[in-house]
Write a structure and sequence with these properties.
alpha+beta; 6 strands; 32% helix
Length: 136
């Protein structure tokens, strides 16, 4: 787990001002394990910890962290954006019932061929999201 001094340094390296709110949000995100969060789920966790922070502040922190390269955005279901602390190239399972994302290691996925790109476009990146649900 990173301490506040380490978090402040991380934010400064990313050219973000280490405000009290950013340090607190970062302390919840950047631990020993990679996590996936939405602004709403993180806001709920903050409230459960007895802290007060506006949902808009949580959104702003997450979007600033993303712009600074500290988080990846993963678009999932019903316009919900999840933020991923794992910046390495990987894919996801998405539980469509719960919205939970689980990482899939790239070495476990094989894609033989990509479709032809539209004229005038080039591939920027590719991420596979496999939507799963419990068996009936």
């Amino acid at each position: 787990m990173l301490n506040n001094v380490q978090i402040s340094e991380l934010l400064k390296k990313a050219r973000l001002r280490p405000t009290k709110q950013r340090i607190f949000v970062a302390s919840l995100l950047f631990g020993p394990k990679h996590i996936h969060v939405s602004a709403e789920s993180l806001h709920l966790k903050i409230r459960q910890l007895g802290q007060k922070m506006a949902l808009a502040t949580v959104y702003n922190c997450l979007h600033h962290f993303h712009k600074a390269g500290l988080l990846k955005k993963v678009n999932v279901v019903k316009d919900v954006i999840m933020f991923d602390t794992n910046l390495s190239y990987h894919h996801h399972f998405l539980n469509v019932d719960t919205g939970e994302l689980t990482d899939i290691d790239e070495s476990n996925v094989s894609i033989a061929e990509l479709p032809k790109l539209p004229d005038g476009f080039e591939t920027e990146s590719m991420e596979l999201t496999i939507r799963v649900k419990p068996q009936s």
